[in-house]
């Protein structure tokens, strides 16, 4: 059997064999709206690579480019109430006002949000802003090179993207219109060295040009290269060793094909190591900021610790689409799987299956140490019974873990996220059916029982008196919590305390 290796190890080894130290791992997104789960992958995956390279003892640099010089092309669903934003459609995101008025621009507001989420997930890249890279002139020599070699550039773009441009197409870069400030609506008429002639005449569906006809210069830094040329240029001046992107960029004729062609045919160098990753899905649909699909990352991080979010996203194969369903049941499952992976990692077992190895690798990438051992459902049940974190910490023999997870449980309760069967209070109340069996059950309860023993005792007592065990379960729930169903009975009885349950039932039916 070949040894299983996590995708981050495989790519890290490829980088080491093909590139030179220090290894520069790049990533970047257009922060055009609230951060969602799909965005998280854009920095989480490269950070896993960086972590591996560093563990192997190599020097790395991890950069994250906020592409906020891109046009503002859509008002995301959660921002629809800011109607005035529509007059700014088509401008660079770094030149659209921040609707919340706390940052210099719209693009920076959501870039800051991304950085805040990175910090909570313990991901710490060097953050660069595309508008500043342009202003500093980082792209200027590339823009002049592309202008000088225009026919060849055009040919490389057409071949690698497998699409013909119109005969008068010269839009290898887009100037910002001096009159209306839009970058989405300009087209280049001519260029010569530093000078670019443009008209602001495009109709891009979400906005229209103002009709202005003007000139700009490369050295004024009021232009942006099209992404197929911007991306490889950035690789050169940042000296990038590897960069990933979603599978949509890696289709035949997609952006990555042009990137590779520009490096090899125009720059005469090898491209960075590329890797591609699948989408994050919710019920089979892509998470999307523009359509407002999926729970926001902020809300999610109120409900589960960052370790669990990272574990869920890092566990599947890189290129696989990942279903991330933020329902209470699937988050409870994620807590369970996380604990199981942590146990496996600590077990030191060497006979792990492929799936178990994946779990252990994802667990190791998700955290530097184990912060809790307690089972999340046990914690939910104990919280309903005792509402006292110190006491629960002692009872479950994990004070540190309980204290770490307590704020998440509190949020589940406050946000109404707790599944219905775990919403209850210990509230003894008498029922008038099956009282003999209830008494029999109470008599046979003994303090050393485990949850499964308690569960089996219900069956035993019901069968010996010829009643349906389900009826006895119901009668027990009614007697203890005043409703006819609840958490698994064995767990519930142990959480309340066997002695206390025994006394309660004997008081009611003895
Ligand atoms: Zn802001
Ligand atoms: Zn204009």
Please describe what this structure looks like.
The protein is of the alpha/beta class. It has a domain at 424-510: Arc Repressor Mutant, subunit A. It is built from 20 helices and 13 strands. It has helices at 7-18, 37-55, 106-120, 130-135, 140-148, 150-161, 227-237, 255-266, 297-303, 306-314, 328-347, 354-366, 376-386, 389-395, 399-414, 435-444, 451-464, 469-481, 489-496, 498-509; strands spanning 23-29, 60-66, 126-129, 173-175, 186-192, 195-200, 213-217, 223-225, 242-246, 273-277, 280-282, 285-286, 322-323. It has a five-stranded parallel sheet with strand order 3-2-1-9-10. The protein has a three-stranded antiparallel sheet with strand order 5-6-7, with no helix packed on it. It has a three-stranded mixed sheet with strand order 12-11-13, with helices on one face. Helix 3 links the parallel strand 2 and strand 3 (126-129). Helix 11 packs across helix 12 (354-366). The longest helix is centred in the middle third of the chain and has 20 residues, at 328-347. It is elongated. The structure holds zinc ion (2 copies). One zinc ion is lined by residues 98, 100, 102-103, 109.
